[in-house]
């Protein structure tokens, strides 16, 4: 959708996260995959969840990273950066 704000660290609900990821190039991602991941990260205590009224159907669960989730995300990005750098070195012939 044009004009949609990025999900980034702001609170968002499952469908909104799925749509944002599709906009970012993850066109084959299934909505069910996102909901399954949200359940897992909620069980691990990485997000705060609040229910907000919906015009259609039951209340929506809105997810936002808590402090523990933010730290975990930063660890993931550090690990990813390390891996990406090493893979680039391998691609360039081990320089």
UniProtKB/TrEMBL annotation:
<dbReference type="InterPro" id="IPR036390">
    <property type="entry name" value="WH_DNA-bd_sf"/>
</dbReference>
<protein>
    <submittedName>
        <fullName>PadR family transcriptional regulator</fullName>
    </submittedName>
</protein>
<dbReference type="InterPro" id="IPR052509">
    <property type="entry name" value="Metal_resp_DNA-bind_regulator"/>
</dbReference>
<dbReference type="Pfam" id="PF03551">
    <property type="entry name" value="PadR"/>
</dbReference>
<dbReference type="InterPro" id="IPR005149">
    <property type="entry name" value="Tscrpt_reg_PadR_N"/>
</dbReference>
<feature type="domain" description="Transcription regulator PadR N-terminal">
    <location>
        <begin position="10"/>
        <end position="75"/>
    </location>
</feature>
<dbReference type="InterPro" id="IPR036388">
    <property type="entry name" value="WH-like_DNA-bd_sf"/>
</dbReference>
